[in-house]
Amino acid sequence: MEIFNDFSIKEIVTCFMVLFAVIDIIGSIPIIVSLQQRFGKIEAERATITAGLIMLVFLFVGNKILKFIGVDVNSFAIAGAFVIFIIALEMILGIEINKTSEARSASIVPIAFPLVAGAGTLTTTLSLKAEFHDINIIFGIILNTIFVYLVLKSANWLEKRIGDATLAILQKVFGIILLAISIKLFTANFAQLVQAYINF
């Protein structure tokens, strides 16, 4: 198939890492365990499939929505870079700028949305379109949904094995990676915007 001509392991790894850092499912383990204690059971399959579908649909439909409202992908990617930048600051500094509302169920809300496929994840997914090929972003999304599923299924076990100190370190490491990626997204898309206006 023609779509597989753009297949790239390097792009898949990058897309996976970006989405993994934004979703931050490891850092969400305490929240997941708390939800499990509150509701008795987390529907891991339902939550994972829903989150994956939301990301995939937004990857393809999101661009059409942008065209409808007259916003180009580069401008959206720059906006996404700012969102990623803020998420990275939250992770590095341990602050909470955007607070998640209280849970009402333990599958679709708040796990699939907004915990996994939240505003930051959807913005990032569409922002990646400006830098990477669709097939590689799709694989990045699929790999992340598999990882999310594994975490949801073994949340209690992970909490016992991973201490608070390790979680804090992982959060800061991925925060720094995310910060660097947000700057790259901003500079690359800003340069394209400037070039487009100059040529215009």
UniProtKB/TrEMBL annotation:
Its keywords, alphabetically, are: Cell membrane, Membrane, Transmembrane, Transmembrane helix
Gene Ontology CC terms: plasma membrane
Keyword Amino-acid biosynthesis listed? no
Check the record and name the Pfam families matching this protein: MarC
* Protein's membrane topology: Multi-pass membrane protein
Q: Indicate yes or no for the key word Transmembrane helix.
A: yes
Give the transmembrane region(s). 12-35, 47-69, 75-95, 107-128, 134-152, 173-198
Q: Which domain of life is it from?
A: Bacteria
Q: What is its main location?
A: membrane
Cellular location of this protein? Cell membrane
- Which positions are tagged coiled coil? none
In which family does this protein belong, per the annotation? Belongs to the UPF0056 (MarC) family.
PANTHER family per UniProt: UPF0056 MEMBRANE PROTEIN YHCE (PTHR33508)
Can you say what this protein is called? UPF0056 membrane protein
What is the organism lineage in this UniProt record?
A: Bacteria, Pseudomonadati, Bacteroidota, Flavobacteriia, Flavobacteriales
